[in-house]
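Recall the central idea of this unit: under ordinary conditions, the amino acid sequence of a chain determines the structure it adopts. In this exercise we apply that idea directly, starting from the sequence alone.
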Amino acid sequence: MPKDFDSWNKVKKQVDAKKVEIFCNSREIWWCSIGLNVGSEEDGKNELFERPALIINVFNRDMIRAAPLTSKNREDNHHVPIIYNNRTGAVILSQVKTISTKRLSRKLCRLNKEQFKKVIEGLKNNLV
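Accordingly, the structure predicted from this sequence is:
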């Protein structure tokens, strides 16, 4: 099925035009306009091309490092299973990226410290 990049481009222009300052912290999970991406890169869902994403680092008020989540419970070297908001899912380690805070729309929750530590360990192991 062909991807509708034109629709994503319209949403991306709206996201980029946002003037709202969003304050966020590591360990938080937010709905994030990930977008419509190339090939097997993780895509957002719905009309805003969103999916939940875990904030790994906050560099400044404009830039963060985040990892998208999947609702599929996968246990391999590229996923870390988590439970958040009474849901099970996994952090997709292979899709971590630096993004603008303009992509964030709604905070879902904050991951507990134990689970976040597992994500960080998974990232470290995934880099070698």
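The mean pLDDT is 90.
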